[in-house]
Specification:
Blueprint: H1 3-10, H2 18-24, H3 29-40, H4 43-46, H5 49-57, H6 62-75, H7 79-82, H8 85-94, H9 96-104, H10 132-151, H11 157-182, E1 188-191, H12 193-196, E2 206-212, H13 218-240, E3 242-243, E4 246-247, E5 251-252, E6 265-267, H14 268-278, H15 281-286, E7 291-294, H16 297-311, H17 319-337, H18 353-368, H19 379-388, H20 394-416, H21 429-438, H22 446-471
Parallel strand pairs: 2-5, 2-6
Antiparallel strand pairs: 1-2, 1-7, 3-4
Helix pairs in contact: 1-5, 2-3, 3-6, 5-8, 6-8, 8-9, 8-10, 10-11, 11-13, 14-16, 17-18, 18-19, 18-22, 19-20, 20-22, 21-22
């Protein structure tokens, strides 16, 4: 039996040993020991102590988890009849912002009630009321479920889709609310970036475009544009508003035609005219992930169809591949010049998430004009499609998939603590140990978990960078 499980099982016959708590990763052993004593005095927790204690000790903050578990048991012991204490301990010890939410609203712990497969059900799509507080409530109920599923060990790839589906439902409800508030007919909202690819992370802006079908006549089009812009502002204000326990979603509308200087909304014809006349290479790459999220489908269908010649050119030279490579290296140079610690950047550093995204998207742009099967905004689906198209060796694809999933898991674990938009791999050894726990490194000794995390981080970065450079060579082969 692993040491942590032995320790948890032996608690009924003795007091917690502080040296063991420190070895497992608790920075405040005395505090943890006191919390354990208090928990064992709770009838709702005592009987299941071996299971929840073992899970708490494998979190980033064991004492914090146990203290919050006790607080929930004291506030509403009936919650523990629905939500296993072990599930709660995983969430409480790995996510500070969700622990605060559960401390304020213990009833939400019922969201963690397991289904027949042992995990809570994923958030139910399309069940969000068109009201800003209801949207915030639905988001955090959904995040609780996804966190419990993620930390419980279900396949990580599913988390990307679940987070995206939750955001889609909240955005659709927000669009309906903004339409009611402004008395403007709802336009279409399309997503770019990770939401567009249905692989959203824990704390990210959602990149959105507002488009509509222009009514006949210049004056009518002008009035429609003004109305949709007013709706877009109401939407952004409402969905970003912070309530008592959190906010909806940060929105980024700056990827629209002409960027921050352009109109907040565009008719389909105006957007297509912009991309045809002024669309930049980076915008072609960004449009790979364009996807309708909410609103009428006709405008989205017309825009996506009209963009095909812009994004998916029938003939491209290998210069396009090198252009993507140079753009990635230029981004790195600019970030270093600005003082960014790129060697600890999960997203934009060498061997990071962007290397997989840019390498994959470059091949999609090169092949997609002739082979529609590679046209997908989802990076993992694109890798699979490129293998089927004969553009990626299976060994390379497996390495990229493995690296991408590890990097995305690390990104999620960094953001899971405080719901902050961070991509920084921690430099501090204690924070590295906490990250290892959030990522599921279950070694008894925290030093062993941290060492394995660092070894994997180094290996993933090296392998991903090597494949990026091989896929997008500086000179023709």
């Amino acid at each position: 039996m692993p040491e942590i499980e032995e320790y948890a099982a032996a608690l009924a016959t003795g007091r917690p040993a502080a040296d063991a708590l420190a070895r497992f990763g608790e920075p405040e052993p005395a505090r943890a020991a006191a919390a354990i004593d208090r928990a064992l005095a709770q009838p709702a927790l005592a009987a299941s102590a071996p299971s929840w204690l073992a899970e708490a000790l494998r979190t980033a903050r064991p004492a914090f988890a146990i203290e919050h578990l006790v607080a929930i048991a004291e506030a509403d012991p009936s919650v523990l009849a629905a939500a296993p204490a072990a599930h709660l301990a995983r969430v409480l010890g790995n996510s500070t912002f969700l622990a605060r939410l559960l401390a304020a609203r213990p009833d939400l712990a019922r969201e963690l009630a397991p289904e027949s497969d042992g995990w809570p059900a994923p958030p139910a799509p399309g069940e969000v009321a068109a009201d800003w507080p209801a949207i915030r409530d639905a988001k955090y109920r959904g995040l609780l479920r996804i966190a419990a599923r993620d930390l419980g060990g279900r396949p990580f790839r599913a988390a990307l889709g679940e987070l995206s589906d939750l955001a889609d439902a909240c955005i659709a409800a927000g669009l309906a609310r903004a339409a009611l508030e402004t008395e403007v007919a709802a336009p279409t909202i399309l997503a770019l970036g990770k939401l567009g690819g249905r692989e959203l992370n824990w704390s990210s802006d959602v990149d959105l475009l507002f488009v509509y079908e222009a009514p006949p006549g210049i004056d009518a089009d002008y009035e429609r544009n003004r109305g949709v812009a007013r709706l877009a502002r109401a939407f952004a204000t409402g969905i970003e508003e912070r309530g008592a326990h959190g906010f909806g979603y940060r929105t980024d509308l700056e990827l629209r035609p002409e960027g921050p200087q352009g109109p907040l909304a565009n008719s389909v014809d105006a957007a297509l005219s912009y991309y045809e006349c002024f669309g930049a290479e980076w915008e072609r790459q960004a449009m790979i992930r364009l996807r309708r999220v909410a609103g009428p489908s006709a405008a989205a269908d017309a825009l996506l169809h009209g963009l095909e010649p812009f994004v998916w050119r029938k003939s491209l030279s290998t210069d396009a591949l090198r252009a993507v490579r140079e753009m990635k290296h230029r981004i790195e140079r600019e970030r270093r010049d600005a003082g960014r610690d790129l060697e600890a950047d999960l997203k934009e550093g060498p061997g990071g998430i962007r290397d997989v995204e840019f390498g994959t998207q470059a091949l999609q742009l090169f092949l997609g004009g002739r082979d529609p099967s590679v046209r997908t905004g989802n990076v993992l689906d694109a890798i699979d499609a490129l293998v089927r198209a004969g553009a990626l060796p299976e060994a390379t694809a497996h390495a990229l998939t493995r690296g991408y999933l590890w990097l995305r898991r690390a990104e999620h674990a960094v953001q899971l603590d405080e719901e902050r938009q961070s991509h920084a791999f921690p430099r501090d050894p204690r924070a590295q140990g906490a990250l290892a726990r959030r990522m599921g490194y279950r070694d008894d000794a925290i030093d062993r978990a941290r060492d394995r995390l660092l070894a994997d981080w180094s290996a993933v970065r090296s392998e991903v960078r090597a494949h990026f450079e091989a896929l997008l060579p500086e000179k023709p082969r």
